[in-house]
Amino acid sequence: MKILVVAKDAMDMMCFDCNVGYFEAVVHILQQPYIMGVSRVCKPIPLSPTTSHREKTDSQCEAVHVDIVCSLHNNPTWFIVSDRNPKYITWDSSGRNKSLKMRIEQIVGAAQFSLVLKPVSIVLFFANGLDVTIREKLLMNFGFRGVNLDFSHFDFVFSDALEGEWVNVLGKSYQGACTLILDVDQCAKPCKSIDSVAELSTSGVHEEFAEAYSELELGSSFLYLIMNMNDWSLDDEDLLSCRREDPLGDYDIVNFDTTVLIAIISGISNGGAEKLLEKPEDELRHRFKNNTEFVISQAKSEIESPIHEAMYSALSGKKGIVCKSVHLEFMELVSMFGGPNEKTRATQLVKLLKVVPDTPSPRMMALPVTRKLAMKNKVTFGTGDYWGAPTLTANMGYVRAVSQTGMSLFTFEHRPRALVGD
Predict the structure, then answer these.
(1) Are 232 and 202 in contact (CB under 8 A)?
(2) How many other CB atoms sit within 10 Å of the CB of residue 211?
(3) Distance in Å from the first CA to the final CA of the chain
(4) Do 382 and 369 meet the contact criterion of CB atoms below 8 Å apart?
(5) Which CATH number fits domain 194-413: 3.40.50.1010, 1.10.1040.10, 3.30.70.100, 1.10.645.10?
(6) Which own/partner contact pairs does 295-299 have at CB distance under 8 Å and 24+ positions apart?
(7) What DSSP designation does 137 have?
(8) Nearest alpha carbon to residue 352 among 202, 224, 178
(9) What would the pLDDT profile of 373-412 be if each residue is shown by its tens digit?
């Protein structure tokens, strides 16, 4: 629904009546389940830096129109959408119409220039198909290749209804569409094996958990979550981030920030919520001081919707990584504020993760350091971005700040939890 609001805002800024089919195609793409982290819809991206306001005003080619900036299977991707009749799409310029060749040259140029918004891939979506001759030229001249994105066919468009609201009406399918993809940023692919930089060995962790479960008070939901994640085998010597090696593949690693590590081991998440709420309010205020309301709300949230269950879909069958700075911060917090059971869970949890060096991606480091874009968070999220791993986080303030820059960043949100001395 949030994506559709973004699309509607873009439509409201443009002449909707003049190109219904185009907007229909854009919304069709936005609704695909593998389109995540949408940060821009129907907005221009600069072609090259300008040195003055006059240059920016006078330049007729100062920006290129990109229809969707998003993450396609966690890879930063630009979508270029066309619903033109194939017979009116020309390769070379004719009259006042810009040729497809010229537009693609400008789009590729903008992709190379823009460090923050730089995509790994550019996808061309021709809703009504494409002439075979022009398709071959895109393949030969630019290196595009055909791709099957397995589009779901929702078969609807948007129509303006009473009181300015949008309603769904029957539309068309896109079974005859032509979809091409270009790998733009080969440097985005990690050049190292994750195993070659890992600082902790995690082989055989599941067996250790199973043996220790009867002796350690880990909590059944904690154990179930951990046992359904994949551990790192010592045989995976050549394992690379498949997210960058295969732009269309599913992710198989998840980046952990401090918030999710705390949430997984918290006593609130491991059967302590009801016990916490049963305690007298005076005792809670003496124990948690100004954070009392925050802790109480977390306990109530846990009873209504257990956090381990909410995390299961994001972590089941995946492997976890954590950057060195997050690992150090997490262990320090646990040592200072964690109870004995929380410390035990923390010890077991980090055994399942690969600790990798702080290696934030160039595009993340290109963002300016501000109050909302702190360096610590740039390192955390940037390391996940470097390895092609979505970050599981409760730090949505940072995620929103990144999105406001126009950068697409694939993340999973979870509700926050605190250490309670369990």
Answers:
(1) yes
(2) 10
(3) 38
(4) no
(5) 3.40.50.1010
(6) 295/268, 295/418, 295/420, 298/268, 298/273, 298/415, 298/416, 298/417, 298/418, 299/268, 299/272, 299/273, 299/274
(7) H
(8) 202
(9) 999 999 999 999 999 899 999 999 999 999 888 898 989 9
Please write the tens of the pLDDT for every residue from 162-211.
455 555 544 567 888 899 999 887 555 544 455 444 444 455 565 666 56
Tokens describing residue 299: 């306990």
Report which residue type is found at 80.
Answer: I
Q: In this structure, what token pair is assigned to residue 225?
A: 């979550």
Q: How far apart are CA 172 and CA 83, in angstroms?
A: 12
d(CA 119, CA 75): 8
> Could you state, in order of their start, the residue ranges of all structural domains in the chain?
2-188, 194-413
91: closest CA among 103, 101, 78, 82?
A: 101
Distance CA 291, CA 293 (A): 6
* Tokens at 88, concatenated: 């009116």
- pTM of the predicted model as reported, rounded to 2 decimal places: 0.78
| Total length of the chain | 422
Cα–Cα distance measured from residue 144 to residue 138, given in angstroms and rounded to the nearest whole number = 6
